[in-house]
Amino acid sequence: MTDPSPFRKEALAHQKLKWNGKALLISGLSPLWVAVLSLTFLLALLIIVICGNYTHRVNVSGEIVTQPHAINLYAPQQGFIAKIFVSIGTKVRKGQTLYLLDIDRATHTGYLSSRSAELIQLQLNKLESIIATTQEDKRRTLENLEQQLAFYQKNLKTSRNMAEQAHKGVDFMRSNMKDYTAYQHRGLITKDQTASQSYMYYQQEFSYQNLYSQAMQDELQITNLQSQLVTRAAELDNQIAQYEYQHESLQRQLTETEAKGTIIINAPAAGRVESLSVTLGQMVNAGDSLAQLSPGSESSYRLVLWLPNNSAPYVHSNELINIRYDAFPFEKFGQFSGRIESVSSIPASPQEMSTYSNKPTPQGNHNDSYYKVIVKPAQTRFTYQHRQLVLSTGMRAQATLFLERRPLYQWMLTPFYDIRKSVPQIIQTEAAECSLACLAMICAFYSLELDMLHLRQRYGISAHGATLTQLIAIANALKLKSRPLSLDLDELKELKTPCILHWDFNHFVVLIAIKRSQVIIHDPAFGRRVLGIEEVSQHFTGIALELWPNTDFVTETQQSRLKLRSLMKHVQGLKGFLLKIFCLSVVIEAINLLMPVGTQLVMDHVIIAEDHSLLAIICIGLIFFMLFRSFISMIRAWISIVMGSMIHVQWKAGLFDHMMKLPLAYFEKRKLGDIQSRFVSLDTIRSTFTTSIVGSIIDAIMSIGLLIMMLLYGSWLVWVVIGFTAIYAALRLATYHFYRHASEERIIKDARAGSHLMETLYGIGTIKALNLAPTRAQFWLNLTIDAINAGIRITKLDMLFGGINTLISTLDQITILWLGANRVIDGHITLGMFVAFNAYRGQFSERAANLVNVVLQLRMLSLHNERIADIALTES
């Protein structure tokens, strides 16, 4: 007998008869269909990427102006508007009466005409006094400048004569030095006699350099004084003319005030009245706006747009654009056409932009350059719902300009274009080796890697530099075919790049490319420069040299590098120090590996079992390990300090001893600050070796151990961590070129600023005697600001890389938290294992980032290696 159901029979019967719908199961697609659909999608995407085009565009803004600009009329003095003779839109002729200004009406302070006459007379007296004072200042200023000019011209003549005599003396003593050296080798004279003669030669050379520098400074001062004579005379004449014009205007107003008690405001030019700022009977003060007048018989409106600097090369005259006026929203009125009339060849000055109301506003402390674009609207009158709408001065507008049209795949690959083969930037070391630096850059473009030391040793040039003939001879020796050309500026785009240009009659640069109106060059003295055509015209002499590989050209690397092993083998006790540091580091890292294991034991065993005694044992053990690690770290730090000090002394002493054995010609071709900066590069190598290399070896070993521990604790989660680490490493390696260039630029600019300071202190007596202190100070300030800006660029890159590392680490942490928590929930790993894995992950990410940074530091050492090799590998 079955148990009776607890439910009612009627409800059960109804439930049996209830329709629950038909179950529909969607049949799965076959693998063939999935493959076909996927391939079709990929093929369509590939066709779109290859055949599709995209046009880069930029949104610009500006305002409507009249051509020529509108004239603003202002009240000359206080009064009442007695009569208005025109209205808005009235066309007027020159001299036509616009307003009648009554200055004879009484106020609570008295009659305006009498008070205005007194004020005008006071202004006339002040102007007459100012004009007389300005004329006297002009006479005194020009006399003072002419006296200074005569003084420096006399000094220049004397300095040139003395420099010529000193140069002859240097040549004579140089020949004597050779004889003295030969006599010493034969035993005819003693070493002290040779040293005495050498000291006299150095004194004569130093005297010649001072005299030559003084002559150059005199020439520069003469040029400045001649320029000041012209500019100061023009400035003072302009001031006097303005004061006289104001005097005549006030005299005329005084006459009108005394005669009629009213002032007539006339139109200064023929045109159209755009606006009236006052009404009949209104009282105005001096300087209040009265009206705005558009000159010309007909209104000629133009739209002024401000184009960013990086977009200027792609915008040209006669291009059609669409204009959107703020007063006529394009959602309702649509867009209006216009044609570009002109694009300025140089960026607009801040003074010019300040005259416009709708100009771009600077972002922060960064002021961009803008080019002025003049657009002629196709329509100046519009009809909307039977209403006539017209443009007016000051109306704001926007436009979208289309710049560069390229296939989609080119835009997608743009970040990788800079990685392709390009012309490197090589900075000259000696003052006269710009020709060798240019050849080194072009050889590197064709995969022949040559450093400056190698070129200098094989093709030494004099302190006066190389001629074009010598440059061709060296190029032929390097298996480069050459073609010298004489050409005009507009023919530069026809040259085969990269090529060499003759610059300022005493310099060579490498032409990289010509893009629209911009010329890109690599200057051995300054680095990469982007110049306008007008600026290039001031420097380019018309001589160019095209270079390309000959049939027997060989691509190889011929560089003289200072090996790190040669620096290390002479340091006493280095192996013992390195062994001690390595052993101590292994102990420290072993303790670091054990710390997460203690955390895992607490999470998985102590807390679950509520075992207080085991918890105390684990915590005491961890405290002991922490104290022991701190003690070992202090010992390792002390050993590192001792080792660093020993390397520092021995390296610098050896390099300085070798430098003192170098010939005098080495120092004559270099600046003092540049030589000093090379010792700073030695500090960088020493710091990298003593701190980074040993630490990187430990980090590498530790990373392997951490990977093994993460694999044991987290299984496949380790691949997620490796993936994020690989992304950071790829980003750093891809941007290495920019970081190296920025570092080299900072080193060179720091060296220039330091060299200028040292030379100034060295010749402070001559500088004060010639009153050149302000000039030297201004030049030093410019060099220092350049060095600071170069340092800021390095700091920005460091901030960028630090932010990227933080972002990647955060994404890594969140992803591991998500995936790891799911594995804990599913029971694949315990909570303690996950906590330990996360601790190992943090250590691994940190160690991997350190390894990437050390790899880049080691690559950066090649830059400092080259600078030290210039001293260490130069034959004494």
TrEMBL record:
UniProt domain Peptidase C39: residue ranges: 428-547
Residues annotated as transmembrane: 32-51, 577-595, 615-639, 688-710, 716-739
Membrane topology according to the record: Single-pass membrane protein
CDD domains registered for this protein in UniProt: ABC_6TM_CvaB_RaxB_like, Peptidase_C39C
Localization annotation: Membrane
GO-annotated molecular function: ABC-type transporter activity; ATP binding; cysteine-type peptidase activity
Coiled coil: 117-162, 233-260
GO biological process terms on file: protein secretion; proteolysis
InterPro entries, alphabetized: ABC1_TM_dom (IPR011527), ABC1_TM_sf (IPR036640), CvaB_peptidase (IPR033838), MFP (IPR050739), Peptidase_C39 (IPR005074), Secretion_HlyD_CS (IPR006144), Single_hybrid_motif (IPR011053)
Superkingdom, natural source: Eukaryota
Alphabetical keyword list: Coiled coil, Membrane, Transmembrane, Transmembrane helix, Transport
Domain ABC transmembrane type-1 positions: 581-860
One cellular component term from this protein's GO annotations in UniProt: membrane
One of the Pfam families matching this protein, by short name: ABC_membrane
Sequence similarity: Belongs to the membrane fusion protein (MFP) (TC 8.A.1) family.
Protein known as: Secretion atpase
